[in-house]
Amino acid sequence: MRTRKNFSLAALCLATVGLHLLTVATGTQFYLTQLTMAAYYGLVVIGLGVLMGYAGQISIGHAGFFAIGGYLAAALTTRNLLPFQDAPPVRILDSLGLLVSGQDIYGEALLTVTPWAAGGLAVAAAALVALVIGVPVLKLKGHYLAMATLGFGTIVYRLLLASPYFGEADGIAEVPAFVLLPDLAGFGPVVVSGGADHRVLNFYVAWGTLILGMALLLNLIGSRVGRALRSLHSSEEAAEASGIATAGCKLQVFVLSAVYAAVAGVLLTHFNGGIGPSEASVMKSVRYVALVAVGGMTNLWGTLIMGVGLTFLSLRGVFGAHDDMVFGVILIAVMLFAPQGILSLRLKELARRLVPGGRA
Q1: What is the pTM of this model?
Q2: Separation between Cα atoms, residue 348 and residue 1, nearest integer Å
Q3: Measuring CA to CA, how many Å separate 103 from each of 109, 110, 149?
Q4: Would you say 232 and 238 are in contact if contact means Cβ atoms under 8 Å apart?
Q5: What is the spatial distance between Cα 339 and Cα 192, in angstroms, rounded to a whole number?
Q6: Highest mean pLDDT range out of 13-22, 213-222, 336-345?
Q7: Rounded distance, CA 212 to CA 353, Å?
Q8: Measured between alpha carbons, how far is residue 146 from residues 20, 24, 121, 226, 252 in Å?
Q9: In angstroms, rounded to a whole number, what is the distance separating the alpha carbons of residues 320 and 297?
């Protein structure tokens, strides 16, 4: 099992390098921008995949966690703290070296939180929110749970639209680059930025993050906790009878999936240089659920492949103005003809489903 997992991860690393080389050979390196964005969205999808496929909990509010991460990181790195520099929280941040001075686009003095600190605070906030709402919400089951998480996502979306601090309908722009690593031994700094000169570097940063996230989840699934999650998904009552703390398991996976979404939100916001309220919309959450369903709720590799692939096509504008409709149709079709994921579908089985009583 471990050998197969390591082989699969190694194959994913080679595929990442192969994608880059293919764009170079075909003169389509501009595709790297959408591939980078697709990798960050893929991080959200695989985190949700573990929650839905292994913990058996559906969430139609994960765009809210993505937005919490992205918006807090954007606000903390762009909103000027100079008027509040004497406030105790700001003084504490300053004493810890977590503030940076600079200038805005108009040349005015600017005091903001460093991207590392802002990102850490944003992810921690998303985890805390997931913990607080997860305790009561995860006691629900089925469509009640879906409606509760949908309500959470709607609340986040409306708060962002109504808050001047978060830019209301305009969102937040001019988000600075995120320096992950400084210049070491002549090797340039590792920077999360949408600049053309950082395009290749950001492609590898995004896919490296996705591969790392995938490795952590595969280790989780193969561990004792993963076995407990599988039993929980099969039958919560049987899992409880076996001595598994089902409530604690569900809550931990819920928080973990929220952290994945928040990390993706932070990094993608710095890559894009901004974030808008559409990232917290209900349709975004529905899309994440659709991508998990298409890939297979208990198939992380299928979720990764289909999630990244369909997101890339969407970002390239392949579906045009019918983008949301296409994802809705895909979700319905998968539920009807391939409930275990499109990669599990066989042609003979599809023929039987399309022609009841017919011979495949």
Answers
A1: 0.90
A2: 30
A3: 5, 5, 40
A4: no
A5: 37
A6: 13-22
A7: 38
A8: 39, 43, 28, 23, 18
A9: 27
